[in-house]
Every structure is written in C-alpha cells, then in structure tokens.
Amino acid sequence: MSFSNRFLCICLVFVSLASCASPNGRFWQSKRSALAAEEINKQASLIRSWVEQEQRLFNVATPLMTANAELCGSDVTEWLGLYTADINTFGGDWRAAAVREFNLVELPAVIYDIKGAPAYQAGLRRGDVIVAINGKMIDPDGNGSESFGRMLNDAKRVGYVDIEFTRDGALGALRVRNMKRCSYDAFLEDSDQINAYADGKRIFVSTPMLDFVKSDEELALIIAHEMAHNTLGHVAARQENILAGQYSGLLVDLLFGAAGINTDGEFERAGIEAGSLLYSQEYEREADYVAAYYLARAGFLIDSSLTDFWHRMAAVSPDSLDRRFTHPTMYQRSRALDDTLSEIEAKKALGVALLPTPKDHTIMAQARATTGTADSTEIETAKSTEQPEEPVDFNTPLEFEVEGEAGV
Q1: Are 227 and 294 contacting, i.e. CB atoms less than 8 angstroms apart?
Q2: 209 with 283, same domain?
Q3: How many CB atoms sit inside 10 A of residue 322's CB?
Q4: Cα 118 → chain centroid
Q5: What SS3 class is residue 394?
Q6: Which single residue of 13, 112, 124, 283 has CA 20 to 30 Å from 62?
Q7: Running DSSP on this structure, what letter comes out for residue 322?
Q8: 274 lies in a domain?
Q9: DSSP secondary structure string, 19-52?
C-alpha cells in the first residue's frame, strides 16, 4: 500500500472514532460536584456527632469540676466555660464541612452549650460570634481564636469579662464572671475500646464508653473516678513505684553482669512490673470511694442502680479475672459502691459535710482542714509525715491503664 493510501486509512479511522459517542463533560462535572457535596455532608455529620458527644461529656464533667474545686488542691483554675472556633480551627479536608456546619467566620464563634458554665449562664449560646472583649475589638487577622484567647486570658484576671457578640445579625453584650473549678479538662478519645483513663492533669473518655453508659450518672461515675486518680496523685505515685522497681531490678542485673552472667534485663523488666502492681488495687479502691462523694457533692442522683454499671462491665470485659491483681473485681466494685452510698446517706441524715474520709490518704484531710470542716484527728493526720494506717478496703472503678496513666 502506498504512503498516500495508508495516510488516507489513518484519517478515516480518526474520523470514525470522532463520530463515536463521547463522554458528556458537563455530566461528569456534575457527578464530581455531587460526590464532593456528598463527602462534605458525611464530614459535616461526623463533625456534628463528635461535637454533640463532646458537649455531653463537658456537661457531665462541669458540675463535678465546679462542686469539688475545694478538693482539688492546687489544681484549680478560674474558668469561663467559653469554647470557640473560627474558619482556621478545622484544617485540611475538614474545613469546608466545619465552616458549613457551624457557620464559621474569621471571628471566634461559640460551639458548645455547657449548661453549668459561666458563659452559658450569662446568656451566650452556640453560634454566637464574639466581636469584642472588654470594649476591645477582636482582630481576626486570619486567626481570630488565637487573638481572642490571648485577650480572654488577660481580661479574666479581674474576675469577669465583658463580651460583645452578634446573634442572627443583632449585636448583644453581657458580662461573664469567672468560676473556680478543678483544672482537669475532659477529652473525648476516638477508640474502639470501652475505656477511660487519667494522666494526672487530664481525663480521657473513649467514644465506645460514651455509648456504653446508660445515663449521665454512669458517665459521671467514670469521670469522677478518673478525676479522683488525678486529685489523689495516683498517676505520679504509680510512676514513682515503677521507677523504684526498675532501678531495683537494674541493680540486680548489674550485679549478675559483674559476675559474668547476662540476664538480658530480665530483673529490670520484672521490677517494672512489680512496681506497677504495688498498691494498684488500693489506688483503685480509693478512687472509687472518693468518686462517689464527688457525685453526691455535684448533685447527681446516686443510688444502687449505679452498681448495675459494674455488672454490665463484667459482662463485656471477659478479661476482668486476668486483671484481678491490679483491679478489684467488678463484683467487689459494685458491693463497695453500695457500702459507700450507705455511708453518704448516713452523713446526709446527720447533716455532716459530704467529704470523703479515707484513713490512708492525707489530701482529703488537708482540704477539710482548709475549709474548717476537719476534726482535730484529721488535721493532725494532714500535718503528720508519719506513715498512714492500712487503707480501708473500699472499691475502685475500672482502670484501663496506659503507661504512666490511671484509668477507670
């Protein structure tokens, strides 16, 4: 075939292909737009669900933190309960969904309604956009929340903050007064386990735990338990025990090494494990005991129905028997909670202050001495440096432990 004939055939092929049906550009563009919109809808739904769960967590934690501030020692802060977000709070692929879901702008907008918080009690609501603090306009400057945070910290030192805000286009103004509360912030943790734990300064509750609890009282029981771990210094004490065990085991490894025997760090590992077990059950029992008082002082309805929580936990925690060396059994916890509730009711009937009085810990006695509700024996115990008595056999909440942390 001549070159001219081959060229003619190629041209005919291209012409025939061109005459075939081609994709409609506008159709696929609309499909891509629809898929993008669907993805934003999914993200908005996830963000909305997360914020709703956090709001529930904060609403339950707030009365525990405010009603028990006198028992938190130096871990107390001046608090407004004002949590905001702007268009830069959510980054990356989530920004568009968050901006749409909460109508975010450059200025900080309230995203939580925490009913026990000073901001809510003063009248601020989710969606309100903060425009000024103590008469000073907030400069968005691409990061309204950071600017707002700095201004807020400076302003609340005087005990209150005057806030100007917009709601549905209308300008409003109000004064928010500080409130003392324990400084342990509660965080929602994305996890696949029914779990909660404390790290000495914060409290973490997993999303499955939030689904597992049947009432706010049960959720409060979990938060109060972790709060007690922080208040009573259990996390730091456990870390000290682990270090002591580690150094003791390491010394044994070194002694064997000097004799020409390689232990491969076996005694160091054994020391760490022994240190982690030291007083572990006592810490858990004490935290359970103190947590019941935190609930009562915060006004939660506490009765024997709360013991059902531990029975249900036993049903979903088949490994609870394996944890008997570090935690009381679920049955023991349930029985101990009943005993503590009886003690609290007896104090109510006698008109006695609802303050926990574990004999093996001096922090509670120190708080009572400070508030003038301690008896002379407790005051002397708080001032004494002698070893405390053997701990009372109270029960403790479940603790899913992370290294250096105490859990439920």
Answers
A1: yes
A2: yes
A3: 10
A4: 20
A5: coil
A6: 283
A7: G
A8: yes
A9: TS----HHHHHHHHHHHHHHHHHHHHHHHHHHHH
Polymer length in residues for the chain: 408
217 and 147 part of one domain: no
Distance (Å, rounded) from C-alpha 172 to C-alpha 175?
Answer: 11
Is 149:141 a contact under the CB 8 Å cutoff? no
CA atoms within 13 A on the CB side of 399: 40
Radius of gyration, CA atoms only, the chain: 29
Q: Which residues pair with 77 in a beta bridge?
A: 181
Q: Which amino acid is at 20?
A: C
* pLDDT by 10-residue block (mean), the chain, 408 residues: 50 43 51 68 90 95 96 92 88 85 90 94 95 87 67 81 94 95 94 89 94 94 94 73 65 72 73 56 86 94 79 70 57 82 90 78 46 41 37 33 46
Q: What pLDDT score was predicted for residue 406?
A: 54
CA contacts within 13 A on the Cβ side of 313: 28
CB atoms within 10 A of CB 174: 14
Sign of CA dihedral 66, 69, 72, 75: positive
Residue 7 lies in a domain: no
Match 């942390």 to its residue by tokens: 405
397 exposed, middle or buried (CB, 10 Å; 0-12, 13-18, 19+)?
A: buried
- pLDDT at position 233: 82
- Provide, for the chain, the percentages of residues in helix, strand and coil under a 3-state DSSP scheme, each rounded to the nearest 5: 55, 10, 30
76: helix, coil or strand? strand
Q: Burial, 264: exposed, middle or buried (Cβ in 10 Å; 0-12, 13-18, 19+)?
A: exposed
Task: Please say which residue of 156, 182, 208 terminates a domain.
Answer: 182
- The CATH number of whichever domain residue 151 belongs to comes to 2.30.42.10
Tell me, what's the pLDDT at 79?
A: 92
Unique residue bearing structure tokens 């995203």:
111
